[in-house]
Design brief:
The protein is mainly α. The protein is built from eleven helices and no strands. It has one domain: Tetracycline Repressor, domain 2 (Orthogonal Bundle). The termini are far apart.
């Protein structure tokens, strides 16, 4: 587990926002969720550990309504935000300059997995909650945003078709690796890292094939009837 993901921060300032408090409590809530699940009990345990008023902590994780499912998604989202922030801190702009794309993705995905190591049961429960029909759209968006955060940390500046395909591909790779990581009991998660390397190798082969396809002669119409640009554009710029 990374130091950035496990440290205990000092007591909050009097003017700390609920958003700031939510982010600060997130790793402690995830620790508690290993035993309590993504419930109010996990929030209370984290609040007690961090010296925060329980009612204030609950308010920070309140969902759109009083339903516990909304609270659970708010807790999980905060955990994801915390990992995103830790990754951005560990890989500031330019940190991966000169590193191959394959190695950039490997380091970033591995960092995220190591940041949640020891909380596999909390992750298992989080994935089950995110898979619920009412949470599917939010889960898809969060996966997309995490992939975007990784590509930005990798220094990606694509602003065309590749912007979408890169994020869709990385989101799928990351989602496929999480269940393997959860169930991996090998020494130092060796099976997870081997799986990750195989998936990345597969992505590299796909990118090579895609480049060849996009480089087809101009006179040859190889466009599919389905436009991924239009579809993925809805993820980046959802209709209002």
């Amino acid at each position: 587990m990374s130091a950035a993901a496990s440290r205990t921060d000092p007591a909050p300032a009097a003017d700390e926002s609920l958003a700031g408090l939510r982010l600060r409590l997130a790793p402690a809530v995830a620790n508690a969720a290993v035993f309590d699940g993504w419930t109010l009990a996990a929030i209370d345990s984290a609040a007690d550990l961090m010296g925060v008023n329980r009612d204030v902590a609950r308010l920070a994780f309140a969902g759109d309504d009083e339903d516990i499912g909304a609270n659970a998604m708010a807790m999980i989202a905060a955990w994801i935000d915390h990992v995103d922030a830790a990754m951005a801190e560990a890989f500031p702009q330019g940190a991966l300059d000169g590193v191959s794309v394959r190695e950039k993705i490997r380091r970033l995905v591995r960092f995220r997995l190591e940041a949640i190591a020891g909380r596999e049961e909390a992750l298992r429960r989080a994935l089950a909650i995110m898979a619920m029909p009412q949470n599917a759209a939010t889960a898809l968006r969060r996966g997309w945003e995490s992939a975007d955060a990784m590509w930005r940390a990798a220094g990606d500046v694509a602003n065309n078709y590749n912007w979408y395909t890169k994020r869709a591909t990385l989101a799928a790779l990351y989602a496929a690796t999480l269940p393997v990581f959860i169930d991996d009991t090998s020494a130092d998660k060796a099976e997870s890292w081997a799986f990750l390397d195989r998936r990345i190798a597969g992505v590299m082969r796909f990118e090579k094939a895609k480049a060849q396809w996009l480089g087809a002669p101009k006179g040859l119409d190889v466009r599919p009837w389905f436009s991924p640009v239009r579809f993925l554009g809805r993820l980046r710029y959802p209709p209002r």
